[in-house]
């Protein structure tokens, strides 16, 4: 077991880690964090819930604070030294929340520019001096275009939840943001899966980066129990009702495959007197955020969602995931399941199964038996499919080439 206290992190960061009760590193943290601290560029692939955010947030804060300690504080307005690109507003808020407690002890400043808020708010957010910027691609592009944002002093550029970001067609924006940064910032990309689109981004920007794949942090997945329930013909909702009255600790996310199924279920639940909220694509963003907050705060115990919510969102208290409709793709299943049993906690997954799901259930069984036998790809079979583990099938072998450079650059604007 490797502990945070054994890392060469600034005392101000150690203090907050201790306060928050973080002791042991997860597997991806164990491997990605030291590499980033040393200034290397990396691609980190690890299942959802494995603690990827801290794996980059700590090195970012450590490096920027060290720079300040060397007598080189940020002195220009709207000119951050680290940028974290996230796919959605919700994730951006979540990432900002991870940074926040550390800013109290380090006195570094984190700002965000996220879709869904007015551009004037975003401009105001970045009108002062600050070190770290969390942003969605669209907002970052707009601010770059209008020259409100200057990325010429960026030392570290992070793409978080890259699979989801690229699913939304953000590859051109990602490239543009990278090219707006200083000549060669240290780069990090984190993703739960390596889809073809993620590989495109890797090819474009991370050809020299070190690739770190978590082999499955047992700490994270060991608390997960899963059950398959057969749906009696036409009795999907009655089956669900039985479960809803069971007591579980933490909230329940109920997944459907389409927006229509999502809304239909919400109506059925309402009729039967259960309070639930909906979280899906193509709904009013303000309402969606409000719904998530109600669920997050534990005010509403049931969140009905499509795969939109299965990616990246970290809600403290999800005790149970119900696949009311099983997904068609294993990748989506992995993401859904990753909403519970996060970082060592316990969680339950219940799959509603009909005859039509037989093939998928067979795949799940293979997954489970591989996990039981300790096979390395258990938590991410999707990515192992797209990116086989046999060296012969891999894209160019990962080389360990440090592309980061010393943080201090003499003669830079703003340097004392
Ligand atoms: P990912 O981005 O890999 O999906 P997150 O960064 O959102 O995962 O972290 C998932 C949860 O695990 C968060 O609630 C976080 O506070 C917690 N966590 C992260 N690192 C650790 C750790 N080393 N020990 C315990 N909990 C952790
Ligand atoms: Mg994440």
Compute the number of helices.
16
Q: What's the quaternary structure here?
A: single chain
Q: What is the rounded distance between the termini?
A: 41 Å
Q: What is the level-2 CATH architecture name of the largest domain?
A: 3-Layer(aba) Sandwich
By CATH, the superfamily of the largest domain comes out as P-loop containing nucleotide triphosphate hydrolases
Q: Unreliable stretches, pLDDT < 50, 5 or more residues?
A: 374-416
Number of separate domains: 2
Short description:
This protein is α/β, with parallel strands linked by helices and 416 residues long.
Structure commentary:
It is a single chain. The chain is of the alpha/beta class. It folds into two domains: 4-213, P-loop containing nucleotide triphosphate hydrolases (Rossmann fold, 3-Layer(aba) Sandwich); 224-373, P-loop containing nucleotide triphosphate hydrolases (Rossmann fold, 3-Layer(aba) Sandwich). The protein has 16 helices and 13 strands. The protein has helices spanning 11-20, 27-37, 52-69, 89-106, 119-125, 137-145, 162-167, 171-180, 196-205, 218-221, 236-244, 259-271, 285-296, 330-337, 358-372, 381-386, and strands spanning 42-45, 82-85, 110-113, 132-135, 156-159, 186-191, 210-213, 224-230, 251-255, 276-279, 302-305, 318-323, 347-353. The strands form two sheets. It has a seven-stranded parallel beta sheet with strand order 3-4-2-5-6-1-7, with helices on both faces. Strands 8-13-12-9-11-10 form a six-stranded parallel beta sheet, with helices on both faces. Residues 374-416 have low confidence and may be disordered. The chain binds adenosine-5'-diphosphate (ADP) and magnesium ion. Residues 22, 24-26, 29, 46, 48-54, 314, 342-344 line the site of adenosine-5'-diphosphate (ADP).
């Amino acid at each position: 077991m490797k502990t945070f206290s054994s890392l060469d992190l600034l005392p101000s960061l150690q203090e907050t880690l201790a306060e928050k009760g973080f002791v042991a590193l997860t597997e991806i943290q164990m491997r990605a964090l030291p590499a980033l601290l040393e200034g290397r560029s990396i691609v980190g692939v690890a299942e959802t819930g494995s603690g990827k955010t801290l794996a980059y947030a700590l090195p970012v804060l450590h490096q920027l604070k060290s720079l300040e300690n060397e007598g080189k504080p940020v002195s220009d307005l709207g000119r951050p030294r680290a940028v974290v690109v996230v796919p959605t507003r919700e994730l951006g808020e979540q990432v900002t929340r991870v940074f926040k407690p550390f800013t109290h002890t380090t006195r570094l400043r984190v700002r965000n520019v996220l879709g869904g808020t007015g551009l004037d708010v975003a401009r105001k957010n970045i009108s002062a001096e600050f070190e770290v910027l969390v942003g969605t691609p669209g907002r970052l592009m707009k601010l770059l275009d209008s020259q409100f944002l200057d990325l010429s002093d960026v030392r570290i550029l992070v793409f978080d939840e890259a699979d989801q970001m690229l699913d939304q067609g953000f590859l051109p924006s990602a490239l543009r943001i990278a090219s707006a940064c200083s000549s060669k910032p240290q780069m990090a990309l984190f993703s739960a899966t390596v889809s073809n689109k993620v590989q495109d981004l890797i090819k474009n920007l991370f050809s020299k980066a070190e690739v770190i794949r978590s082999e499955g942090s047992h700490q994270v997945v060991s608390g997960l129990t899963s059950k398959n329930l057969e749906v009696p013909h036409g009795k999907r909702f009655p089956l669900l009702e039985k479960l809803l009255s069971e007591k579980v600790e933490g909230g329940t996310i109920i997944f459907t495959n389409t927006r229509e199924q999502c809304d239909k279920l919400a109506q059925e639940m309402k009729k039967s007197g259960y309070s639930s909220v909906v979280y899906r694509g193509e709904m009013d963003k303000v309402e969606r955020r409000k719904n998530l907050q109600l669920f997050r705060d534990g005010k509403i115990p049931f969140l009905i969602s499509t795969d939109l919510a299965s990616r990246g969102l970290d809600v403290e208290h999800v005790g149970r995931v119900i696949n009311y409709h099983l997904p068609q793709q294993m990748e989506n299943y992995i993401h859904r399941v990753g909403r519970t049993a996060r970082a060592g906690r316990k969680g339950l997954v219940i799959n509603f199964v009909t005859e039509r799901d037989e093939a998928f259930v067979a795949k799940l069984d293979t997954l489970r038996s591989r996990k039981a036998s300790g096979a390395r790809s258990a938590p991410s079979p999707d990515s192992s499919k797209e990116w086989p583990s046999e060296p012969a099938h891999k894209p160019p072998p990962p080389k360990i080439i440090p592309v980061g450079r010393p943080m201090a650059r003499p003669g830079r604007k703003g340097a004392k």
